[in-house]
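Good day; I would like, with your permission, to put a structural problem before you. A protein sequence and the C-alpha cells that stand for its backbone fold form the material at issue. Thank you for your consideration; the sequence and its C-alpha cells are set out here:
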Amino acid sequence: MTDLHDSIRQYFEATNKRDFNAAITAFTPDAIVRDEGNTYNGLPEIRAWMEGAAKQYSTTAEVLSSSEISDRPTVKARVTGTFPGSPITLSFFFVLSDEKINTLEIKV
C-alpha cells in the first residue's frame, strides 16, 4: 500500500478484511461519510454503511495512489465487487482530526 496516514491505512485494510471493529476505530466519534449521494453521521451510521456496502456488493478496494490536495489526504482506489461496472476507480477525500478520519467523501 502506498504511503498513507495510519488511520487511512487502517480503514482500507480493515474494511477489506471485513473487520468493522477495527475499521470504525479509524474515525472520530463525530465523523461524517458522504457516498453515493448519502450522508452518514457518527459511528453507528458509518458502521452500518460499511457493513451494508460489504454485504450488498462484496467490495474490496486496492489503493492505487495517494496525495494531498488542499491539505486533504486523497486516495485513488480500484474498487471491485458485485455491482454494475465493477471494477471502478474512485477518489476518497479525507479530513483528519487528531490523526483520525473526521470526514470521508467518496466520488467517481
User: Anything to note?
Assistant: The chain has one domain: 6-107. The first strand starts at residue 27 and ends at 35. The beta strands are 27-35, 38-41, 60-69, 72-80, 88-97, 100-107. Residues 59 and 81 are 4 Å apart (CA to CA).
